[in-house]
Design a protein that fits this description.
Layout lengths: L1 E5 L3 H14 L2 E7 L6 H18 L3 E4 L4 H7 L5 H22 L4 E4 L9 H15 L2 E2 L8 H11 L10 H6 L10
Parallel strand pairs: 1-2, 1-4, 2-3, 4-5
Helix pairs in contact: 1-2, 1-6, 4-5
């Protein structure tokens, strides 16, 4: 198995790396998160991913796209669930397409580790993307690893964000006033 892992941030990568190594799964990391706002946060998460991946010796593919216009103009009138569905589809399909184009046999996403994401929607989106791009979606309920991944990240000093990523989750975050933009 040769797997492409869509990575939303460094802390989520930590537990996946350990899991894949224990299972003997060869994988590369893929960063594509045009939803993350503001721009400083997008670059902070991308930089954190790249630095952590480099420390692991992990091969990466990075698409630094930033797309505030879609989130402000196209998605503003949608419900939270509809925005999340769009966001999942856009990122997971990009991963599947990239996996197929680069000879990977499987793909998955670190979003599957979060207890705060719609797990059923993620699984369905991954399965459809796999069918569309003819690459197998690797499904596992990784939520059991969430706290362990956070502990690894904390111990390693990896930047841990306080909200999902989009402008709407930022505006709704109860940690908004604690987010530092240095």
């Amino acid at each position: 198995m040769k797997l492409l892992l869509h990575v939303c941030c460094g802390p989520c990568l930590a537990a996946f790396d350990e899991y894949f190594k224990q299972k003997g799964i060869q994988y590369s990391g893929y960063f594509y998160n045009p939803n993350i706002h503001p721009y400083l946060e997008n670059t902070r998460r991308m930089r954190t991913f790249m630095e952590y991946a480099a420390g692991l010796g992990l091969e990466t593919i990075v698409d630094p796209q930033f797309d505030l216009a879609t989130w402000e103009n196209k998605l503003g009138s949608l419900s939270d669930s509809e925005r999340c569905a769009y966001c999942y589809k856009r990122r997971i399909e990009a991963c599947a397409k990239t996996a197929a184009a680069n000879g990977f046999t499987h793909f998955t996403t670190t979003l599957l580790i979060s207890p705060y994401q719609d797990h059923d929607m993620l699984r369905e989106t991954g399965m459809r993307a796999g069918e569309k791009f003819r690459v197998e979606f690797y499904y596992h309920d990784f939520r059991e690893l969430y706290r362990h991944g956070q502990d690894i990240a904390r111990e390693a000093g990896i930047y841990r964000q306080k909200y999902c990523g989009c402008i709407y989750s930022y505006n709704d975050s109860r940690f908004r006033e604690k987010i530092k933009w240095d």
